[in-house]
Amino acid sequence: MESKARFKSIIVEIIGYLYILLFVYAAVSKLLDFENFQLQLGQSPLLSAFAVGVAWLVPGTELLIALLLMIPKFRSLGLLGAFILMTMFSVYIFIILHYSSFVPCSCGGILEKMTWNVHLVFNSVFVLLAALAIVWQAKKNRKKASISPVLTIPLSAVSGTFAIIVLFLFSENIMQYKNLFIRRYP
């Protein structure tokens, strides 16, 4: 029984390190090529009206989550943040692929080489890894947990999905009806 708990603990740590690597790489890539990243967000059918704010918010959030994952005391919070952010990224890609009038260019860095469908699968795998880590971390910290992962995971997924849908609807409304020379370049 002890070896099984140790195995799960190691897997949770590995998942945390994978997320740290992913988020630090992604954030640094965005910040190093910030103008291009901001331009790509401006071309997004979902986020064009909010490109400036989102351009700062995304890498900042990625770095904050990576920091939380590095500190054992805050690892559970970091895993939850990673789950929500990757859910939001996945929903964003799903909406782009299935409901958008056009598909903008992809992210920068290594991930730029992926198609949108492959990127969706990649993100979905990371969402599942975070969910697994949240469940195993909660079982390890049973006494400290105030909310069960059975509630936390679906509520987090729904809230992340809701946030992206609201951004999409507001962005479309702003671009179509309140457009003060904000332009989208397909």
Q: How many strand units?
A: 0
End-to-end distance, in Å? 56 Å
What is the H-and-E element order? HHHHHH
Average pLDDT, all residues? 85
What gyration radius follows from the Cα positions, in whole Å?
18 Å
Contiguous helical run count: 6
Biggest sheet architecture: none
| Helix percent band | over 70%
Low-confidence stretches: none
Strand content: under 5%
Q: Please tell me what the overall shape is.
A: elongated
Which structural class best describes the helix and strand composition? mainly alpha
How many domains comprise the coordinates? 1
Question: Explain this structure to me?
Answer:
The protein has 186 residues and is mainly α. It has one domain. Helices cover 75% and strands 0% of the residues. It is built from six helices and no strands. The protein has helices at residues 2-32, 34-43, 51-70, 75-99, 116-140, 149-177. The longest helix has 31 residues, at 2-32. The chain is elongated, with a radius of gyration of 18 Å. One of its GO terms (cellular component) is membrane. Keywords: Membrane, Transmembrane, Transmembrane helix. Pfam families: MauE.
Give a short synopsis of this structure.
It is built from six helices and no strands.
Topology:
Elements lengths: L1 H31 L1 H10 L7 H20 L4 H25 L16 H25 L8 H29 L9
Helix pairs in contact: 1-2, 1-3, 1-5, 2-3, 3-4, 4-5, 4-6
Features:
about 190 residues; about 75% helix; 6 helices; mainly alpha
